[in-house]
Amino acid sequence: MKKNAEESYLFCESRWTFWTLTLVAGMYGAYTYVLRGGVFCNAQTANLVLFGMALGNGQWSKAAYLLIPIGAYFLGTIFSEILAKYVKRFQLLRWDTMLVAFEIIVAFIIGCLPASVPDQVAQVAFNFICSMQFNTFRQFEGMPMATTFCTNHIRQVGSNLVKYSRHKDDTSLSRIKKHGSLLIMFILGAVLCTVACVHIGLKSIWISCVVLLVLLIRMIYADLVEEKGQLDRKPKGH
């Protein structure tokens, strides 16, 4: 359990967990853009804009098609809420831990798909797991954070730089460091996966499986040893 002077946090809220998940999210985005249709599947803002444009232009079939990734993201949120409650009853592992295991399985299967499989299959799968990850991992050591996209991280770094220049307060500096570190990890993930896509091709997504496997082992250890008896404890933000 991560501790500071005032509070304690579960391992699923720790910097290592959020850094790893954000690194992997950068890989997901690069993978789908480079090899699976030239799109980003980490969030749905762009798809909502395209959906509105399609409606405005009377492109009904395109609008209907865009409901597929938007719907997958929507369902990912619903399933993560339902499964989190269901898994908690068994008192074996945290839902957060089981989600990481599920992501490994999905990413591995996607890496097995041949190029002949429509790109939309991989896109929708990533829509689904990114939604689940975004809805499950909500706070980084007590601070609201997203692991799958970075718009708010950019805003927070800029905003808190101004605040820190005025007041030199520790809160602003902490926000700069945390949001900035996730920006770096996201970019790093995109860089690593882009290089891997060039040299390895469709199986490059398996690198994310290796990274997530390391995190999974550490999370299982936290659940069974370090935080044993605390499976009822909710991460902050839930």
Give the key terms.
8 helices, mainly alpha, single chain, 238 residues, disordered N terminus, two-stranded antiparallel sheet
How does this structure look, described?
This protein has 238 residues and is mainly alpha-helical. The protein has one domain (2-145, 187-226). It has eight helices and four strands; from the N terminus they run ββαααααββααα. A hairpin with a 4-residue loop joins strand 1 and strand 2. Helix 1 (15-35) packs parallel to helix 7 and helix 6 (151-167) packs antiparallel against helix 7. The radius of gyration is 19 Å and the shape is globular. Residues 2-6 have low confidence and may be disordered.
Short description:
The chain is mainly alpha-helical. Helices cover 70% and strands 3% of the residues. The protein has helices at 15-35, 45-56, 60-88, 95-112, 119-136, 151-167, 170-200, 206-226, and strands at residues 2-3, 8-9, 139-140, 143-144.
Secondary-structure blueprint:
Layout: E1 2-3, E2 8-9, H1 15-35, H2 45-56, H3 60-88, H4 95-112, H5 119-136, E3 139-140, E4 143-144, H6 151-167, H7 170-200, H8 206-226
